[in-house]
Amino acid sequence: MIDIEVLHRVANTLAERKKADPDASYVSSLYTKGTDAICKKVAEEAAETIMAAKDKDMLHLVWEVTDLWFHSMVLLAHHGLSVDDVLAEFRRREGVSGIDEKKSRSAV
Ligand SMILES: N=c1c2ncn([C@@H]3O[C@H](COP(=O)(O)OP(=O)(O)OP(=O)(O)O)[C@@H](O)[C@H]3O)c2ncn1[C@@H]1O[C@H](COP(=O)(O)O)[C@@H](O)[C@H]1O
Question: What is the ipTM of this complex?
């Protein structure tokens, strides 16, 4: 079983960082800079993920996906959301084939 508790612990830290000093916390400094700065980090980490995959660099691929998940979690927290909202969406989609779901969209 994969340990997703670490995601909850990080999410709790991200919530706590709303009250932290931006000079002492990277997360708090991102909140202070705002949505554009956080989105820029998400875009950078997505680009670095793509480069690692294209280079077939497995170590960096894991590092960059971790950076991407982390900055996506910061973006969610900045908007009052958390990893629980994403996990709930995964649960809602569970078992629904992407092919069937796409067909049902074109039928509407
Ligand atoms: N998981 C992470 C995490 N992953 C990556 N990073 C930071 O994300 C930053 C940006 O990564 P980059 O690779 O882009 O680094 P960079 O190029 O030097 O950054 P820029 O100059 O481009 O801004 C780095 O400073 C990393 O250390 C993280 N910073 C924090 N966390 C978690 O968030 C918690 C709270 O962190 P603080 O708010 O800093 O206490 C920590 O305890 C960790 O659990």
Answer: 0.91
